[in-house]
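REVIEWER CHECKLIST
Item 1: Sequence provided? yes
Item 2: Single chain? yes
Item 3: Sequence as submitted:
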Amino acid sequence: QLVESGGGLVQPGGSLTVSCAVSGSHYGGIGWFRQAPGKEREGVACISSNENTFYVDSVKGRFTISRDYAKNTVNLQMNSLKPEDTGVYYCAAESGFVQFCAVVAGPYASWGQGTQVTVSS
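Item 4: Structure as written out by the authors:
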């Protein structure tokens, strides 16, 4: 089971961290995806079982994905937010060991319900 939290309203240039609480099955790679109104869902970042990470170009240098083993969460820290970062953010999980992850939806079998992130002044 995956449960996202931490969304909200933030001004352009601000920061926000969204979290994905992971429970239940053994999950390998965890990915973050987002969907803006009227647009298709897109991948944002992912982290593999051995903590290799991947970021799409539009968030590289601004977003950081990390695991918190004590809390069993995967966090996405978002800095220098832009209005185009607005959307519903979903976390998703791949089962089993994942050495290198990718932000394509196919391998991800489990999805959370999403959390809204709005970047606006």
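Item 5: Key structural point noted by reviewer: Residues 52 and 100 are 6 Å apart (CA to CA).
Item 6: Recommendation: ____
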